[in-house]
Amino acid sequence: MSTIFAPRHYSRFQTKYTVHFLGDAFLGRGTIFDMSLGGCRIDGDLTVRAGIPLAIRLVVPNRPIPINIDRVKIRWVKGQAFGVEFLAMQPAERTRLSQLIQGLATRHYAASVAD
């Protein structure tokens, strides 16, 4: 039996940012990789289950205030790595996330042109 995957709506960019994630009864820490406007991959210090809701706090170097995402859904889990979909955040946080992704995209495309 084959698995059908839906195409991604957003481009993903490689990152290495610290993240704190909060569930109903736990607080974890990890690193974000492969981030987009719609979600990201986290390598965490705890094992989580697909489907549970979390809040995450993204710590970006050289930015004094973390980006808070109020609600994410865990879409898949492999060991302590998991993928999340961003479901809800305040408009100001969405703007900050968009600016961060735009900066990642600019650096990515500039590097690919330089090659």
UniProtKB/TrEMBL annotation:
Domain PilZ residue range list: 8-102
Single GO MF annotation: cyclic-di-GMP binding
Pfam families: PilZ (PF07238)
InterPro entries assigned: PilZ_domain (IPR009875)
Name of the molecule in the record: PilZ domain-containing protein
Organism: Nitrospira tepida
